[in-house]
Queue: 4 jobs
Job 1
Amino acid sequence: MASCDDELPQRRDALESDLSELVKKVRAQTPARLLAGRSGAAYRTHTQLELRQAHAAARDAVRTELNLLPNSTNDLGEEFARQWNLFEVCSQAASKDEYLLRPDLGRHLNDASRAELSRRCTTGRDLQIAIGDGLSVTAVARQVPQLLPLLCDGAHTRGWSVGEIFVIRYCRVGILNQIGELLTPKVAVLLIGERPGLATAESLSAYMAYQPKTLDTDANRNLISNIHARGVSSEQAARRILDLADSMIKTRASGCQLREELTPSTQNAHVPTISRTAR
């Protein structure tokens, strides 16, 4: 018996054959459900099924717990976690429910995690990368294994020192400030899962700041969002992150004081103005 996942593309293909060339061109430009048609006053059945499928994927992405345990279904892959010597710390949120209800707790590391970072991490690096689950573990699992090697290789090519990479459970963007205070890097980068929508549950954001401090806000940070297969590719994201980090180091500034200048290799990448990341 064919699954729902198998049937949806077949139904979509049958409907596509009835569309005019103009409508096909319009729909090819965006993942949004434009000109989807209707049955009476309601969506067509295949559109309803697609929406329910996307909504279920979004809920799963938000509710799923990040898993880095060995000998289990490791979200980032056991070999990847071992290769990069990843270790886990946690915010002050004690559970997923508390994390969702109390965003403020996700902006601060708990005492044990602060001690763990102080013990295991080297301070004063040029680039410090952290991985946060945010509001989509799915995005972290899909994008980080492709993006992280590109970032580290590019940083080493530029002669930068890179700090020990770690993963933060129940993470909000504001935790960048504590990373800056504890580890004093020149540039801190937080790769964090965006709140999923009905277009994709696999979108990652990269928040960056020059020497982040306790009282910093979003005005002190730069953002590259929509990192996923139909948005900004891993290669484009890596180049943009490294170029921005280079500008931060040279100008000793970030956020609203620093505008991203796209190079020819990144000028075709989408530059979003809105992010749905967990703040």
Job 2
Amino acid sequence: MSHAMSSGGWQALVGIACLVALGGCASSSTPNTAWTQPQGAQSASSRLAAPQQDEGDTRRGACGEEMTATTGMQISLIRQMLNDDKPRAALAHLDDLSLDANRGSLAEPRLLRGEALRKTGKRDRADEVYATLTETCLAADAWRGIARNQAARGELETALNSMQRAREARPIDAAIRNDLGYLHLLEGQPRQAEDEFLTALELSPGYSRAARNLVMALYAQNNDRQAEGIAQRYGIDQEDMALLRQTRLATAERTATTSSGVSSVSASAPSGAGTAAITHTPTERPTAPGTLEIIRQ
């Protein structure tokens, strides 16, 4: 495969489109978190979907901590609020939950707080919370949240390193592999991105977001025939494919004008094209270009 797209060309995409969801990042209504997997993605973290219940009125938390059944129900409610895109309500309930000092040691409420803070734009505070989890059983989720925040600030290289740490902590998480691939794609490394997307799809065959990203990585390497085969296999519609092709062409034009000494700012993407087309269905594409956010939930 030829690597026709330069790093500068891919980075130029960031300036002309809103990146959501690496996942990417990137979305079809289900959040990319440890407790719910996007578009069919499954991982070892599925244990968080329902805390292990012991006999009697106690349960085990995500990292094996003991808690009451009532606390477990409260955590489930907060998790659902985040899934329903109600981060402020989630924070309010987390504040109420934290009134019980015995709950402060639970890992999952801290992760939920980090996610809620990130969703409300309080990224620095979210990072402080994530940092308390990097040595726990939720280290993968913590590093993923940190990487998302870094990418949202435009710190792509640092975000890539953090997402690699998330992968090391949980290598069989399809959503993390997808996110890592998307960061590789933004860094002008489509071959590495392709490998991560293929891994995500093998781990979770129904993960349509990873399939779209894989198509983009193949286009970036001028492997049109394989890209179209992947699109057919995973049911990517013609509208999405047209946008993916337009994005590829816009990037190629931008790369060419830059190499000829013309400012890359003069190149413009086709209307409706951009990195958002990689990870969103037509009704979910963002309308505010120029911002970088790996996951919007």
Job 3
Amino acid sequence: MKEEYYRQLYRQAVKELQEALPDVAWPPSPPEEGIPAAVGQGLDLPGLIDHTALKPDTTVPAVQRLCEEAVTFGFHSVCVSPCWVKLASRLLQGSGVKVCTVIGFPHGTTTTLAKVTEAVEAVACGAAELDMVLNVGALKGRSLRRVWEEIARVREAAGEERVLKVILETALLEDVEKVLAALIAVKAGADFVKTSTGFGGSGATAEDVSLLRRTVGSRAGVKASGGIRDLATALAMVRAGANRIGTSSGVQIARELAARKGEKSLDETAAAEKRELCGDLQ
């Protein structure tokens, strides 16, 4: 994306935000710091992965396997549906692997009260990170205060100790709407902006990740999610500015990375030692 086109988008987004939310101080120009060095280098790729199982047919054995794999390969978190948060929290207790869940998933069209209630329950069940879906229709209809207030209320419900990511569903948005959504999310208290649910058409693209990173700078993280199934795609997202990767293909990516480095796969002894951190998952 050419710089002048991006700056035009940014100016248009800020103008709309100043008109819709004049009581909020919007940054008049995009950040200049670029991609943080630790992000662009793709350090510790497995440690950037939210190992994900969000399909409606996910079962108890699938959650157990997900948690075991996360510990074995050193993923940042497991991302599971709200009904599995308590189980995952118990399985991963003491392991260092965090539990992430989704709010208003997958369409973002539940009410604000429903999202707030989901957030409160998820935290009570042990979730450390919440990925909430933005109300895309409200954004596209330019009900920008409604979008802002909803994110702010979920942020308050989650508490400052929890990580809040806002899923923008970039495949459904025009470029200026991506900038609008990212600015609103960060100002309302989000720790990350996230590209996609994986259920809303196409998923993450390096171009969208770059656009989001250009917009938020170092003020927030960028999570790429949706359609990331191999190492090459994951690395492309990291080079574009993602510092979190949401994928159900974490094991394949980790194995590809180990093969590229010339490393052997974790042997059974090492895997067993790691599994002991979260207890017997069988």
Job 4
Amino acid sequence: MKKLSLIFAAVMIAALAGCAGDTTGEGGDLAIVGNLELDAASAGRTIVLIWSAVDDVDGYKVYFRADATGSYTELGESTTTTYTHNATNAGDYVVIAYKGDDTSSANSNAVSTMPNVISTTYTIYDNYSEASTYSGFIFGETSGTEGSAASAGFVQDLYAYDESKGDDDVWLYSGSFGTFGNGNTCYFQEPGTTYGSCDPDSWIANSYRLYTGDSVVFVKLPYNTGENAYVKMYGLSVTADPATNNGTIVSFSYEYQPKDLGLTVFTSNAN
């Protein structure tokens, strides 16, 4: 009898473990939702999902996991084959069909709004640092490039510039603005209460003042086609340049949302 009890307990533990991973309620007998994708109407923080219909169902449940980690949580339901999410940060989406208590046998394919996360630490210097240091920066989709904003051959997206000596702040200048404005135009935005998204319609032109306590700034990169890519500079560090009396060093990593959809959602990470 003791042996049977142990076997029963082991079976129950295994069953509970299986349920614990069943975070979206899938595992029923209905067909799997197919062709989940981002609709071209997606832009900024507005994420529009579309998918193929499953016959003879009551509707669909949409799930999301922030930063593409952890468990999925239900966002809502739809009786059509589309769903709009006003997102506060990037992540993954899946959809299941339901009819009464029955659900799809498995999740749909996952769709991600995650940016490219470039974790390399880059460093630029202001105009009071040594002339041999790099002040300019170009944001690439998978890596960035430091260079001299004073050089006509380096077409920067932004550069570091200090408007006064001896203080604890520094300015980020648009690549087309100011003393070394031979580069590309960009725009800046201060983060709100969270770091996972920015307002696609509210930008600061020309320059942005960085302080030692800042950790994040958003950047819009316009293209000649009229499309925009968006960047989150994170892990910001503003420190005095020990090699000079008045120079300032700006270090950062960044996340890059390509221009194909113009999304302004990012991870929740600040550092």
